[in-house]
């Protein structure tokens, strides 16, 4: 059965581009009938919009500044998303807190990537907080989105060592490289796992 993905971005869109590139290189459409139907941004100036268009993906903007309330914005956003009948909505650097109604509407088909090893450092400024806390490792997490911010079931993580010379910027750059590795993998596994067993897959233990 055909499965559409809608990706939401707010900025540079490098995670979106990594997923689009993996989808193309791995033949998601030909092999699994999975396609990225649209990239939607809440910011008209998001750099990722041009990247999406270069990759031949339809784009749309739902500018949060045009709406009086969070609820009104989320209603308009959901309309734009639902026009593509998505099997999965992927938050890729989408920097808006979503209303409980929006999250409930996409329950079981809404993923996020967060630049920390959750449950450590939910919220913002994750890299500086990891450095300030003296962490020896940092990383990133792909998780299902639930009503509470950055708390849903964890699907995949990658670990990055924190170096004594690290700044938030240098650490963020190394974590971002790992984000690009794990997000496309988690998206595909989630869609295929759901497809086959009705549940997302998890790692297996040695016998
Ligand atoms: C990524 O590091 C992502 O983990 C983070 O924003 C960046 C977006 O980069 N997301 C969050 O902080 C969500 N709370 P990108 O636009 O280049 O993919």
From TrEMBL:
Domain Formyl transferase N-terminal residue range list: 3-187
Enzyme Commission code: 2.1.2.2
Binding locations of N(1)-(5-phospho-beta-D-ribosyl)glycinamide: 13-15
The protein's annotated pathway: Purine metabolism; IMP biosynthesis via de novo pathway; N(2)-formyl-N(1)-(5-phospho-D-ribosyl)glycinamide from N(1)-(5-phospho-D-ribosyl)glycinamide (10-formyl THF route): step 1/1
Binding site for (6R)-10-formyltetrahydrofolate: 70, 112
UniProt keyword Transferase present: yes
Active-site residue list: 114
Record's catalysed reaction(s): N(1)-(5-phospho-beta-D-ribosyl)glycinamide + (6R)-10-formyltetrahydrofolate = N(2)-formyl-N(1)-(5-phospho-beta-D-ribosyl)glycinamide + (6S)-5,6,7,8-tetrahydrofolate + H(+)
Top EC class for this record: transferase
A Gene Ontology molecular function term of the record: phosphoribosylglycinamide formyltransferase activity
A biological-process GO annotation: 'de novo' IMP biosynthetic process
GO cellular component, one term: cytosol
Function (record text): Catalyzes the transfer of a formyl group from 10-formyltetrahydrofolate to 5-phospho-ribosyl-glycinamide (GAR), producing 5-phospho-ribosyl-N-formylglycinamide (FGAR) and tetrahydrofolate.
Similarity comment text for this entry: Belongs to the GART family.
HAMAP family found in the cross-reference section: PurN
Protein name as it appears in the record: Phosphoribosylglycinamide formyltransferase
Gene name, Swiss-Prot/TrEMBL: purN
